[in-house]
## 1
Amino acid sequence: MWDFLGGIIAYPFRWINTISPNYVITLILFAVFMKIVLFPFGIKQQKNSIKQASLRPYETIIRKKYAGRNDKVSQQKMNQEIMELYQRENFNPAGGCLPMLIQLPILLALYQVITKPLTFLLQMPKELIQQITKLCADAKLTATYEIFQINDLLKVHNGEITKLAKDATVSITEIKDFLASPAFEGSTKSLVEHFEELRDSFTVFGINLMEKPDMGDFSVLWIIPILVFVFSFLSMKLTRKFTYQPAPQGDNATAASFKLMDITMPLMSAWISFITPAGIGIYWIIQNVLGVVQQFILYKMYPIPEMTENDLKLAEKELRGKIKQQKPQPEYEEVAPSLTSAERKAKKRQQSLAHKPKISAHGKSRIKAHGSVPTAIRYPGGRR
């Protein structure tokens, strides 16, 4: 599935790569392109936040109603009233999560494109890629992804690796001969020339983005995970200034858990940058910067209303003024469905007669004489 998504992402990625001078520019342009494509989803998310902000006074009044009541029943009632409020206003709390859900598969698909440049960028035949993989396995090279295989084979070819494992079934000479052969039908370049062009494209300021930082050996590549941590942390802080923040709820432990997440999420991003090619970390940094810029633009286009004391008073007045509509009582009692048609008619007639006012003998004589009955006689004791 990820190869399929990678193939889709590879189309714009290849086109951008043909017009950019190096791989970092490709990543920047691709990140901007994806932000433009996903911008309508960002607008939807911002409008969803505005809707939630408009309901905050009502939600605050409901929470205030149950303040200090931490028992399970009270909390359930509070949550039920809040959900009923959302339903009345046609608000979906999860409606703004779509952009976040879309970005994750895009990142995973991009990971496939970056780690498999032979498949997605050079579009080499599968048979040739299988031969390269087998050659790496015979040489006892530990690389599994194409990007690391290219890097290791170039190290062998350029003499950076002067000997192979003792149980390797191929020699350095055989590897050099294989790389010097024509890459594939229709190509005028050898494999090593294709590999060197890729490495030159991935090299920026002397940093080879095809490699991954070695946690056991400090190198210049450590700069990338460190920058990933810094930019992830700062982007979370800055983005919150331009987005709607739900009303705080819960005790101090909940607030502490949010603060802990502010550290653990950037740390997780930095750890992933240690175990993946440096290009992934570069893309993550670019995404964090563009994410803050996008949120600032949305904040200016669609400002989020702030809750005031007047809003709280109006919300409280409106909630108190709402009267639950009672179900109207039937004019007559329901007749059991087991009765026959004649029995049901007799029952209804009996109920109807029971509701009719009683007329005295004097009233009846007046009806015969005048055709009507005075109100006092028709309804003894006043109107019913």
Note: The beta strands are 203-204, 207-208.
## 2
Amino acid sequence: MVTIDKIFQASVVLKDIIRPTPLAKAYGIAPECSLYLKPENLQNTGSFKLRGSGYKIAMLSEEEKRSGVIACSAGNHAQGVALAASKCGIESLICLPDTAPISKVEATKGFGAQVCLVPGVYDDAYSKALELKEEKGYTFVHPFDDEYVIAGQGTIGLEIMNEMSDVDAVIVPIGGGGLISGVACAIKSISPHVKVYGVQAAGAPSMYNAIRSGHPDALPSVSTIADGIAVKKPGDLTFKMVNEYVDDIALVTEDEIAAAILALIEKQKMIAEGAGAVSVAAAMFQKFPIEGKKVVSLISGGNIDVTSLSRVIDRGLMKSGRTTNLLIELVDKPGQLKDVSRIIADCGGNVISVHHERNGDTESINGCYLRLTLETRNYDHVQEITQALKNEGFKIV
């Protein structure tokens, strides 16, 4: 089992492998609490995963090192194993789902690993890795359900407590559960009163469901922009540890994750992937009782696919009230568009898209629809604009 002694040992072993990630004060993201970020997105390979894989590989026997290692991953664990194996002069083969972002696939190769793309999701890659392990005699490096991997991740908990001994709560993303198991074990062993909260994407609530049902079952499918935590079934060891150490688990929606990614970009000039941003989303949208508390949100990774970043930002803008769509029913006569534009401008809104539809199912036979996309400050600003339009007789559909 994982112990605080093993986590302390891991911190010594990892000194020459990992990069320090000091806490950063967050401004304007969750004003109800005093929020700090643990930026593991700035870690070597862009993710916390190097800690667990680095410690696991360092503890292998010489015979196991000669045989090489194999792993499966949605991307971040792959890069961690690849770099850790390369530092030890060990061959590595990584099975990735073929849905993994190209950037993560290429990064894994760049750290010195061979890559095997497997059709499906993480769990399919896991099955293929076990098959190749038996066939080729590799040592399997599990992404989360392994005591050495968990202990390596637990070094994050030590660092948080060393830097901020008076922290009230730590919020941690959950996929398979290895990260929060290690972090919670470390924190609770040092300061049992500190709350440790876990967060999952609503589209992949495997640990959330497992804790509530009392046993880990596999989800039929997962769907979320937080691909790093899109795990169908948590580990047996991590389930036990989460059950023992973690105070509560909450879910965040896709829109909430997108809003958190956007907030980190704007407020902190920090890039987080979906899995890394769920802990910030939980603080932003008050999923836990943290008002007036000193809180650390763990940003687990920053390896977001740049091709999807613009779509995520668009979702985040919509969720935070920074953009909005309005459908207005008009009487089709001169001056209507001018009046609408004047009202919006007077309220300080900015029209960025206009679509005029004459063939609509309006109440008036001379009616038409006007579809607008606006740049706005927040939800209160949206309400101000819509109320001003209504006050001048316009019908908001």
Note: Residues 147-163 form the longest helix (17 residues).
## 3
Amino acid sequence: MKDRILSVDIFRGATIVLMILVNTPGTWSAVYAPFLHAKWHGYTPTDLVFPFFLFIVGTSIVFAYKNKVADSNTYKKITIRTLKLIGLGLFLGAFTLSFPFFKDFADIRFPGVLQRIGVVFFFASILFLNFNWKTLVGIAIFFLIGYWVLMTTIPVEGVESTLDRAPNNLANWLDVKVFGTHNYKADYDPEGLLSTIPSIVSSLLGIFTGLILTSKQEKKTRILIGVGGAMLIIGHVWDIFFPINKALWTSSFVLVTAGWANLVLALIYYLTDVKGIQFGSIFRYAGANAIVVYFLSSFISKIMGMIKVGDTSLHGWLFNTVYVHDFMSMQLSSLLYGLTVVTFYCLLAYILYQRRLFFKV
């Protein structure tokens, strides 16, 4: 595409690489703090990764659909892509090495990362095709404030609502009611039903950034920095009343993560698209097959965790045999394992890119 913006591809690829890195340490018992999620309220660098991807999904929607007509053919393509994403996510959740290679229905976790990406992509695309940016701003504000009101004022079975991990947390209560034991944890799911509403806004905020990048505005870098800074300030102020929380995908979390996304993208945009500095090509390669690379990393990691080697798994055996040494801390060994995994998938992405193999999901 002639109007393709390099920084968007680099941002997408870097986000996928980080997703793989934080998901595949050598051992979860020894991980440096920045590579772990916040225990509940607050955020770490790792908590930025998934919202960054939903954000860039929104930005990419602008490039993909800005000249599309909102007709049955376009809706069909959006729906098919949505179902593919959800299907891949359900496959990951249901797969097992035991014949017939799928878990019993009662043991399948239905929410998930790919499922959320699919749902968010569907609604963000439909909204983008049917409303102008001013209406989308109104919808985003309505969703964020509405979610805040729901989570903080609606009693749960006669008990005052809370934002803690408790039975009277509205989002947690709804997930338990709908999915029962099909949750990530017994009392909450980070990709649950109610929190999908504000996660759609993460993508809408990415759409606004896409509109800025494709506009005829001058000084786009300054605009992105200004927008990102404003979101950070508003998000942190809102944190006082509605705490930043990834598991609940709170409204303050949406604004803070989108704020950081704009600032990071502004920096990459300035260096690559404005100044013409060549860097980050490996991330561009990963971004070209982002979903496929992420799916393969998750699928292979799951298989390695299932294959038994002695009293541990193939993953555990490989980590303990190759990476654990007396002269290194366990945290460093764990990180080196993750970096090795990332290097493998970056090389795979490079090979696919060089052979012009692009898998559209």
Note: The mean pLDDT is 92.
## 4
Amino acid sequence: MHETIRRTLALLTLPALAFTAAVQTEEVRPGVLRTPDARFESLPDFPYAPNYVQVGDIRLHYIDEGPTDAETLLLIHGEPTWSYLFRKMIPVFLDAGYRVVAPDLVGFGRSDKFTDEDAYSYPMQVDYMLKVVRALDLRNATFFGQDWGGLVGLRVVAAEPDRFARVVVSNTGLPSATGFQGWIAYPLFKLAVWWEGEMTLEELAANLTFPRWVAYSYHVEDLPIGRIMGFLGGNPGVVAAYEAPFPDQRYKAAAQIMPYLVPSQLRENEEAWGVFESWDKPFLVAFTDSDPITRGGEQAFLSRVPVAQNVTIRGAGHFVQEDAGPELAGLMVDFMRGRELPDEIQADRIEP
């Protein structure tokens, strides 16, 4: 009923042609929205042309910059962000002669968005990204993932290890369990989220932990993307760019439900760990020292990946791409070129 009223009012206030174009732009089919292009115009420090690949009924967006025949980096973002998160890193890679491919997960950025939270799942995101990698036929690539970018991308790498020459992870994880724990841990996690209950953003910021973040995002009626990015590491001057993909609450289903799904694939992730426990190609672990969400998570990679190298990024929080994007990109270039790496680097955190 609400949708019918909204559209009727639109007909009364807009020319018919404009109305038709708006519907075609926003709702590509029942239950699937597409953020209007106008929302992405004139974003600060993001001059990159959009590219799209159709996967079934869903159109996925990706950035593709640099020589097509150059060595490729695959950068996958977390939530509630999109490929804009890499704007400080892409120029460093391009100056070094690399090709950069940075897709938007389903429900984020310029990719199509389901309106129903139940349409999203961990394996669904993996499957879509896997199909993007295959459609672009990426080979000899270096993968970088942070937050959900790691959870999804590491599964992609595990499914197609021959396509990847190196892996870099920061502030992410691959939660796993076997046996009885593999069955019971996720239901217990959901119980813990219920126990945390609803809270305000101010209460979350005062005591930010992963379970509380999940509880907040799960229970809040309308996730305030810009404010969240503001206290998790986003430059206040570009908060609008993180809000751009989400004209209203209908577009935010993925952003609201994805934290709740983090431990939903524990047994499947344990199978993926089998790939990395025998990994013999370069693998860099570059966590920050000031992330309350993934603090200590680097130990799983360092203990289970036999060739893992560790570099700590000092003075950076959860969104390392915001706090130390150029420094991390420079570290990755050194890593890709086989140079000796330091034990730690320092985030500049001086905004241009």
Note: The chain has 14 helices and 13 strands.
